[in-house]
Amino acid sequence: QVQLVESGGGLVQAGGSLRLSCAASGRTFSSYAMGWFRQAPGKEREFVSAISLSSDTTYYADSVKGRFTISRDNAKNTVYLQMNSLKPEDTAVYYCAARSIKVATMPNLYNYWGQGTQVTVSS
């Protein structure tokens, strides 16, 4: 079992940057692949990025590729999402999620979810 708590969301102007953090409880963080997802009002939850156990594999949605960077620090039980060149269409609630061992991009494959953090990008 792992509990996830996101932080770092907020209001930013288009072109700005934010860094989201997701702190995980438990001693087995390094055995979980981690993902970031987002959900805008009236839309389904969508994949943003994911990272493997040892950070050797990362995935990005086409819409964020080249602007967002996922990373993790297993010593700190934390996964990050650095978001640069933000656009109004990035506005959403951002969730981190964990699943055992294998990295994935489908939200239904993740077992544990945080409560989300709001990101709002103004034009």
Biggest β-sheet description:
7 strands, mixed
How many helices in DSSP terms?
Answer: 0
Gyration radius, to the nearest Å?
13 Å
Low-confidence stretches: none
Q: How many strand elements? A: 11
- Mean pLDDT, to the nearest integer, reads 96
SSE sequence, one letter per element? EEEEEEEEEEE
> What does the overall shape look like?
globular
Percentage of residues in helical conformation: under 10%
Percent in strands: over 45%
Provide a quick synopsis of the model.
This protein is mainly beta.
List keywords for this structure.
11 strands, globular, four-stranded antiparallel beta sheet, 0% helix, mainly beta, 123 residues
Can you tell me about this structure?
The protein is an all-beta fold. Helix content is 0%, strand content 50%. It is built from no helices and 11 strands. It has strands at residues 4-7, 10-13, 18-24, 32-39, 46-51, 58-60, 68-73, 78-83, 92-100, 112-113, 117-122. Strands 2, 4, 5, 6, 9, 10 and 11 form a 7-stranded mixed sheet that branches. Strand 7 (68-73) and strand 8 form a beta hairpin. It is globular. The N and C termini lie far apart (40 Å). The model has no long low-confidence stretch (mean pLDDT 96).
